[in-house]
Amino acid sequence: GESVGLHLPTLSVQEGDNSIINCAYSNSASDYFIWYKQESGKGPQFIIDIRSNMDKRQGQRVTVLLNKTVKHLSLQIAATQPGDSAVYFCAEGGSSNTGKLIFGQGTTLQVKP
Amino acid sequence: GAVVSQHPSRVICKSGTSVKIECRSLDFQATTMFWYRQFPKQSLMLMATSNEGSKATYEQGVEKDKFLINHASLTLSTLTVTSAHPEDSSFYICSARDRALRLEQYFGPGTRLTVT
Predict the structure, then answer these.
(1) What is the pLDDT of residue A6?
(2) Which of A27, A65, B18, B28 has the fewest CB atoms nearer than 10 Å to its CB?
């Protein structure tokens, strides 16, 4: 079945370093991808999204890269801060127009001061 | 903008009772709302899609008679967990899709349900 997975369950980085969180997806027909940040006990918070007609999109301190050839998505966080510590999920908006999202398993980002 | 609220944020109920969780879009109209369940240290699992004015669409394995969903208006969807059991204890999260924006989806803060 469809699935979106993350390569690493936990990523530990030093404050100020750049972080890269990876995600693999399986549905080549997917046309919309989103990264969410979830802090403990809270709902997911939108970070950045990208559509399948793009391969890169930048936001404030974050960049999402999409490689459709290998069905890979990554989130880059520049100058990681302690406040970035959270669980990060990639989600796939499928090829249908139902709006349903398929979430990956999540990567815990730990930022060491 | 694009705020989604949930009420209550936490609820404890006894086994066998029912509990209702509300999801509201505060500053936009949502033709579609989604309900997710999240167990500790796990990802979000979609339970159902709620469309205003029509019956909800449930994901495979989700009992529609146990998890009653009502989407009575463009700003409110409710999830009722009927005859709750301890295994229903989880973090329930809703999201809402702005009818004006085809893809964007906004999440509520979640409701922690504990069934004793």
Answers:
(1) 46
(2) B18
